[in-house]
């Protein structure tokens, strides 16, 4: 039965792979009446519309592109002249808009960020408070206090332990910067008080002379000349969660490159930046559209800087270019489009059928096996229904469990969710018998290929025994987290009170659903499509999270997981 299952599984996997390959083959196959894409021979016309703030940028892009491709005619129109407010007028090939215009149109359509505009907080890096600024950061509430009330504009109102030294806030005459800042602080722009300067260049010059100065400028004021050094100017860290410290996930202010990546992956306050989008009614597949977008994402990025906007980081640009079709269609090839749509539909149907077959085979294979054997089954994808949740034990939000045995000793370990996320544990570090532990204190370090997670105690007590087998066979934590993979036996010191804060099976199962939602959001923010690590995150676009998802991810992802899923739950 087992060998038959494996053989059938291999056949189904091959068919599934072929089905998923069909759309790619269809897109890249030569079509009747079509020619291989060649920028040197492109011809035809396109209509490009831009919101008023991006009209000059779109015109510059079109002008330069048609210089290289003289057989292509691009007509650029101002969105305000079309009577539309962010929507895509009929007959338009591409629309370039900023975030505000895009949000005005709720219709679902294809879009891709091709640039952005960001304002950033800056300070004099020689400030006597520089080390505390880097460690604590400043929250929106603290900034509001010193920006709106000159009487409270002191370092003691920005930093714990700060002195009663005045903070000098500088702001420019750029209305767009002040409006964006006011939106971030939830105040009226008229409420901003401080020392006015003409522009970003003067603001930076003022801060370079003033160790107690801070301000907001455009990111391009720091990068417009292409310099990487900030020349005495530091990026003022923003404490997004207002917990009085810059957590690992917030450490993006060391240099411009780190900040640019932080903006991309969502670590920077969204109120302080706006994306520049290319929008279309459907994903561009004609050679003119795709060639133009490739230009915008490569040489055209310099035009963003010229217009006072920010170019995308190299990794982000590469990831977007990789998502554009390689084999392109002539704009007039409608027959080819119909063939592709048919093939994609057939492929999708085949994928669904094969997925059902795989599910049935798995169910037959697992029929009759005891529930505890589910620990050793390695699934391709994992969700709340995949996690084993034994009844009769208590669960903690730090992904640990506790169970009181008949003799009053409490056995504790990690839950099945955590082992599904981490993958195979290679070694562990443990406390010893006699050690006292408190609920929320670190009691165990899980190590996987040098990456670590520090696990906290679900209850308080005195360690009476450790599971010494784990020192030589830590894989038991993965294969049997609730039985052979237990961690400690503890004599509890506050059992009755502490179990009031723990879950039993039913409530824990419901809570797990929200944890998987958080995990999806965490992965979406931390790892973007196009990065090599993305292959380990999901089975396919819109699919389930891969089992053992963090096994092949880097230490920085593990550290952020530690902060958001372990430390934050204490």
Main sheet, how many strands, which sense, barrel?
9 strands, mixed
Given helix and strand content, the structural type is alpha+beta
Level of helix content?
25-40%
β-sheet strand percentage: 15-25%
Provide the CATH superfamily of the largest domain: RNA polymerase II/Efflux pump adaptor protein, barrel-sandwich hybrid domain
Find the count of extended strands (DSSP E, 2+ residues). Answer: 20
CATH architecture of the largest domain: Beta Barrel
Low-confidence stretches: 1-7, 18-41, 329-338, 365-379
CATH top level class name of the largest domain: Mainly Beta
Shape: globular
Separation of the first and last Cα atoms: 46 Å
Multimerization status? single chain
Number of domains: 4
Number of helices: 19
Task: Compile the SSE list and pairings.
Blueprint (H helix, E strand, L loop, with lengths): L1 H27 L15 E7 L4 H14 L3 E7 L15 E5 H5 L6 E15 L5 H7 L3 H9 L19 E5 L2 H11 L9 E3 L2 H10 L3 E6 H5 L9 E3 L20 H9 L8 E8 L6 H11 L3 H6 L7 H9 L11 H33 L14 E2 L11 E3 L3 E5 L5 E5 L1 H7 L4 E4 L5 E2 L4 E7 L2 E6 L4 E6 L2 H4 L3 H4 L8 E5 L2 H4 L6 H22 L18 E2 L8 H12 L4
Parallel strand pairs: 1-2, 1-3, 5-6, 5-7
Antiparallel strand pairs: 3-9, 4-7, 4-8, 4-9, 10-20, 11-12, 12-13, 13-19, 14-16, 15-18, 16-17, 18-19
Helix pairs in contact: 1-13
């Amino acid at each position: 039965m087992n060998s038959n299952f494996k053989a059938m599984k291999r056949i189904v996997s091959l068919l599934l792979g072929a089905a998923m390959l069909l759309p790619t083959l269809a897109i890249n196959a030569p079509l009747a009446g079509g020619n291989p894409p060649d920028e040197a021979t492109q011809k035809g016309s396109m209509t490009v519309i831009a919101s008023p703030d991006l009209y000059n940028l779109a015109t510059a892009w079109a002008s330069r592109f048609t210089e290289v491709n003289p057989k292509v005619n691009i007509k650029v129109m101002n969105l305000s002249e079309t009577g539309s407010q962010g929507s895509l007028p009929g007959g338009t090939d591409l629309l370039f808009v900023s975030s505000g215009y895009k949000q005005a149109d709720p219709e679902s359509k294809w879009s891709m960020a091709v640039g952005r505009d960001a304002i950033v907080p800056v300070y004099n890096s020689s400030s006597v408070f520089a080390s505390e600024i880097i460690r604590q950061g400043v929250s929106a509430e603290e900034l509001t206090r010193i920006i709106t009330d000159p009487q409270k504009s002191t370092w003691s109102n920005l930093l714990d332990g700060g002195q009663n030294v005045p903070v000098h806030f500088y702001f420019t005459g750029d209305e767009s910067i002040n409006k964006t800042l006011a939106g971030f602080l939830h105040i009226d722009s008229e409420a901003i008080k401080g020392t006015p300067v003409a522009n970003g260049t003067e603001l930076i010059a003022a801060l370079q002379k003033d160790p107690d100065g801070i301000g907001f400028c455009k990111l391009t004021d720091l990068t417009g000349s292409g310099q990487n050094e900030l020349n005495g100017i530091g990026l003022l860290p923003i404490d997004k969660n207002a917990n009085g410290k810059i957590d690992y996930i917030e450490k993006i202010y060391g240099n411009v490159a780190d900040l640019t990546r932080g903006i991309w992956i969502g670590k920077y306050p969204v109120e302080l930046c706006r994306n520049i989008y290319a929008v279309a009614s459907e994903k561009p597949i004609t050679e003119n559209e795709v060639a133009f977008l490739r230009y915008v994402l490569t040489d055209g990025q310099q035009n963003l800087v010229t217009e006072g906007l920010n170019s995308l980081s190299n990794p982000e640009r590469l990831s977007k270019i990789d998502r554009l079709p390689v084999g392109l269609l002539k704009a007039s090839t409608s027959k080819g489009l119909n063939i592709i749509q048919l093939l994609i539909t057939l492929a999708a149907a085949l994928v669904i059928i094969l997925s059902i077959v795989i599910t049935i085979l798995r169910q037959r294979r697992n029929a009759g096996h005891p529930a505890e054997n589910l620990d050793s089954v390695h699934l391709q994808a994992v969700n709340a229904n995949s996690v084993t949740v034994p009844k009769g034990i208590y669960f903690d939000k730090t992904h640990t469990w506790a169970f009181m045995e008949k003799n009053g000793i409490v056995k504790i370990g990690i839950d099945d969710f955590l082992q599904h996320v981490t993958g195979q544990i290679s070694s562990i570090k443990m406390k010893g018998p006699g050690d006292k532990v408190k609920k929320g204190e670190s009691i165990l370090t899980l190590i996987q290929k040098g990456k670590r997670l520090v696990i906290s105690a679900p209850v308080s007590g005195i360690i009476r025994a450790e599971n010494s087998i784990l020192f030589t066979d830590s894989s038991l934590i993965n294969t049997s987290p609730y039985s052979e993979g237990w961690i400690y036996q503890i004599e509890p010191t506050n059992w009755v009170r502490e179990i009031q804060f723990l879950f039993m099976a039913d409530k824990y199962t419901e809570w797990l659903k929200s944890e998987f939602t958080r995990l999806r959001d965490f992965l979406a923010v931390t790892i973007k499509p196009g990065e090599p690590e993305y292959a380990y995150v999901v089975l396919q676009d819109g699919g389930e999270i891969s089992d053992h998802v963090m096994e092949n991810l880097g230490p920085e992802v593990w550290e952020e997981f530690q902060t958001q899923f372990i430390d934050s739950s204490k």
